[in-house]
């Protein structure tokens, strides 16, 4: 199957890797256009799927997370390492991509990590944490707007 | 004369400087105008808060992993998040109301079943109330009470007996040891003790285990009360559990009790949510 990202980069993926994508794996189409996902994010999502190529049963994360637990206590080491190496902005985009593809384990992992980061912080600290690192220029904004119009069409 | 002239000259110089600065303020240089124009046409938007980008359903997914206090703390982040959280809370409220309705229907069905069995109707209320009261009493036990009992070298007979029966009840494959008191203390001083006690499932009591703890009904309530309050609460709990388990239809009765508890819990959380949502 081929995935085409927002910036027109094509990724060819084996069907076995796609097993985690519950919404895509049973479709007949050979090309999936992800108009709202950038290639960098799509690459990370594919990396996650490849990481779990041989895992048939990934244990569910308990809800709500206990106060004394950190991410390394609740998920496997490789998952924890994968998620802690990402930036917040990337994680949020990954959740959106994973939701589109139906990778529930990745959604849970990302949401749990954000929840752990938010937990116990006051509003000011949360605000600081969720601030985007990159200032948005008007060109980028225009690009986003164009993309939205393209998607709506 | 010269001094006066010098003074006047200074004043004139100052005036000239002032007027020059006023003229400078009135007009921008070409470079300045260009810069200002560029800034107007190419504004630098301050760092965006990521929360604006996140869809409410994703926030909902994140909140599923959080407890209520962290959840509500998020309301203070921005007006946008406050609105989102109020919306999510109202969704939760609706879900809980639906759950409550379903539970009430199930409870009604179960009550109808019980009413068809006269022997159950006779006991159900008194037994369930007794069980519920004993559970409420257990919640009153403080750490100090446990420490007090744990400090006994030669415990009173009643206390030792009650704690031994409790050990029999809570230990999965009970094997009596020589030093029964130490065996009981190990259970009571365990950090998981209260959790284990409050979440004990009556349905897990086998007939053999019931025989092991049935002695509790022969013990005198007054004597236990006199020896220790902690032991008294435990005694009441074990007695309620044994009486409930002795009934032939104990499964139905226990289900009924649990259902009532769940409905109470749901209505309490619904009240809280209604207060928050307003």
From TrEMBL, chain A:
Biological process according to GO: ubiquitin-dependent protein catabolic process
Start and end residues of each SKP1 component dimerisation domain: 105-142
Annotated protein name in UniProt: SKP1-like protein
Domain of life (superkingdom): Eukaryota
Annotated region described as Disordered, given as residue ranges: 133-153
InterPro entries: SKP1 (IPR016897), SKP1-like (IPR001232), Skp1_comp_dimer (IPR016072), Skp1_comp_POZ (IPR016073)
Domain SKP1 component POZ: 2-54
Basic and acidic residues bias: start-end ranges: 142-153
UniProtKB/TrEMBL annotation, chain B:
Top-rank taxon, per record: Eukaryota
InterPro entries named among the record's database cross-references: F-box_dom (IPR001810)
F-box domain mapped to chain residues: 56-86
Any Pfam family matching the protein: F-box
Protein name (Swiss-Prot/TrEMBL): F-box domain-containing protein
């Amino acid at each position: 199957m081929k995935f085409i990202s927002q910036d027109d980069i094509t990724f060819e993926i084996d069907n076995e890797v796609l097993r985690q994508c519950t919404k895509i794996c049973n479709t007949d189409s050979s090309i999936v256009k992800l108009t709202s996902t950038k290639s960098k994010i799509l690459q990370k999502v594919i990396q996650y799927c490849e990481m779990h190529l041989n895992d048939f049963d990934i244990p569910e994360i308990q809800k709500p997370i206990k106060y004394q637990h950190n991410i390394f206590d609740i998920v496997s080491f490789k998952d924890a390492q994968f998620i802690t190496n990402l930036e917040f902005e990337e994680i949020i985009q990954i959740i959106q991509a994973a939701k589109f593809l139906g990778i529930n384990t990745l959604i849970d992992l990302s949401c749990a990590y954000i929840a752990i980061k938010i937990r116990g912080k006051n509003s000011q600290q949360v605000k600081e944490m969720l601030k985007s690192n990159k200032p948005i220029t008007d060109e980028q904004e225009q690009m986003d707007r164009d993309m939205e119009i393209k998607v709506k069409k | 004369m010269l001094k006066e002239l010098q003074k006047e000259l200074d004043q004139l110089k100052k005036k000239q400087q002032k007027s020059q600065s006023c003229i400078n303020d009135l007009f921008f240089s070409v470079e300045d105008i260009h810069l200002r124009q560029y800034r107007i046409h190419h504004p630098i938007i301050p760092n965006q808060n990521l929360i604006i980008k996140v869809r409410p359903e994703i926030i909902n997914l994140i909140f599923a992993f959080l407890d209520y206090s962290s959840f509500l703390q998020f309301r203070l982040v921005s007006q946008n998040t406050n609105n989102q959280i109020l919306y999510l809370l109202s969704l939760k409220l609706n879900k809980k109301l639906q759950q409550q309705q379903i539970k009430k229907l199930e409870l009604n069905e179960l009550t109808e079943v019980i009413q068809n069995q006269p022997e159950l109707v006779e006991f159900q209320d008194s037994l369930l109330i007794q069980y519920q009261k004993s559970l409420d009493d257990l919640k009153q036990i403080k750490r100090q009470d446990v420490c007090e009992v744990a400090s006994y070298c030669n415990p009173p007979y009643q206390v030792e007996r009650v704690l031994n029966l409790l050990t029999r009840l809570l230990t999965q494959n009970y094997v009596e040891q020589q030093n029964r008191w130490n065996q009981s203390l190990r259970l009571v001083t365990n950090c998981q003790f209260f959790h284990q006690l409050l979440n004990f499932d009556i349905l897990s009591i086998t007939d053999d285990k019931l025989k092991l703890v049935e002695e509790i009904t022969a013990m005198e309530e007054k004597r236990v009360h006199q020896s220790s309050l902690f032991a008294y609460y435990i005694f009441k709990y074990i007695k309620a559990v044994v009486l409930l388990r002795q009934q032939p239809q104990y499964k139905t009765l226990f289900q009924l009790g649990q259902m009532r508890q769940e409905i109470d819990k749901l209505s309490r959380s619904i009240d809280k949510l209604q207060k928050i949502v307003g």
